[in-house]
Design goal:
Helix content: under 10%
Order of helices and strands: EEEEEEEEEEEE
Strand order of the largest sheet: 1-2-3-4
Number of strands: 12
Strand content: 35-45%
């Protein structure tokens, strides 16, 4: 069924998570809807949305990529900045703690670097920088972060060394 709330918008990218969805429209705006109990919609509260609602925190910025994870979300803006929000458990937001964020917050660990891609998993997050480096953060269990024997949670983005010499 066509989503009427986006009828006058041209959607150029989408991401579906377990409980929520995010879209990017041609004007660079991000829209989210679905379950919001963890703040993953980025509207400043922990409420769900029945219809797509613009993420106002990105006003004046152009969103070029989004990823809906397990209770959290990631976005990439045209200037290469990584943003995260929602459930912070296990450090999946990359802000150095496990605190929830109800609004998109810049991942400061990427200051001075330009990211080109982001992906949100159920309990962890990933980004690729313009120089080809891969960074992961969040829950380390099951080796999902790619740091070898180190299965600890990473509260900040950590470079995956497997590709460091590539």
């Amino acid at each position: 069924k066509k989503i009427e709330a986006l009828a006058d918008q041209r959607v150029v990218a989408l991401s579906a998570g377990p409980t929520h969805s995010i879209a990017i429209t041609a004007d660079g705006a991000a829209w989210s809807w679905g379950g919001g109990a963890c703040g993953q919609l980025g509207h400043g509260d922990a409420e769900g949305e029945l219809l797509p609602k613009k993420v106002e925190a990105f006003a004046g910025r152009r969103v070029v990529a989004v990823s809906a994870g397990g209770g959290h979300s990631l976005a990439l803006t045209a200037d290469g900045t990584v943003w995260s929000w929602g459930w912070g458990a296990s450090g999946r937001l990359g802000h150095g703690d496990a605190q929830a964020q109800l609004l998109p917050k810049k991942v400061e660990a990427f200051a001075g670097r330009r990211a080109v891609a982001v992906s949100a998993g159920a309990y962890h997050s990933l980004a690729i920088t313009a120089d080809g480096a891969v960074f992961t953060w969040g829950k380390g269990e099951d080796a999902r972060l790619g740091h070898g024997e180190d299965l600890s949670n990473q509260l900040l983005p950590k470079k995956v060394e497997a590709w460091a010499a590539a």
